[in-house]
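Progress against Task 2.4 (sequence-to-structure conversion) is shown through the following example record, which the project officer requested during the mid-term review.
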Amino acid sequence: MTPHNEAKLGDIANVVLMPGDPLRAKYIADNFLENVTLINTVRNMFGYTGTYKGKKITVFASGMGMPSMGIYSYELYKFYGVETIIRIGSCGAYNEDLNLFDTILVDNTYTEGNYAYELNEEDCHLMQSSTQVNNVIENTAKELNIPCIKGNTLCSDCFDYYVKDVNSLIARFPKELNIIGAEMEAFALFYNAKLLGKQASCLLSVVDSHYKNQEISATDRQTSLNSMIKLALESAIKL
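C-alpha cells generated for the chain above:
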C-alpha cells in the first residue's frame, strides 16, 4: 500500500483505465464491468477491479491535473506492476472541425509546464503516447466503427476557461504540432510511462469548444462518454 492507495498487490490488473473523475470510474464499474471489487477509497479516489468479457480490468481515478495524475500513475506503474494505462478523459476543442462528443486519440502531448524537470531534471515538454497501444486502439475503432481523430493536444496547468487570454496561449504553441485540443493530465502519464518503461495512451471526448461556444453539463461529463469508454475497454482486452 502507498499513502494514496490502499489496494494490495494483486488487486490491480495489468491494464488500467484511468478517468480523472472518481464518479466516472464508478459509472464505468457499475455499467460495464462484472465481478467488481472496490479496491481504493483513499481520498475518495475510487478504484475498481472487475472483468470485461472475461479479462481482468482496473478502473482507477487520477484526479485533476498533472500533480494528481503524476502521483497515481507513478504508484500504479512502480509499486503495483501495472504495465499499461489508458487515460479516458474530457477535453476542450482547439480545432473548429471538432464537435461535442468527438473522440480524440492523443498522439503527442505538449506542455509549457515543468513536470519532467521537477521529477527527473529533464527539460522535456513533448511526450508521445505508446505506438503499440495506439495501434490497437486505432484498429479497434475501425472494427467498432467508432470515429476517432488522432492528433496532438495541450496538457495545461490551468483550466483554460480561466486563462487571461486563451488566444495568446494558443498563439504560443509550436505551429508544427497542430494542437487540436486541451486537457490537464496526459503529459504526466506519458512521462511516467517513459521513465518507468511502461505503456500509456489517452482517449479524450470533446466536452467544450473554443470556437463554437459549446459545452456539456457536469452530469453528462460523467455518464455520456460511452463511445470512448467502449473503445477503451474493447482495446484493453487486446493488450
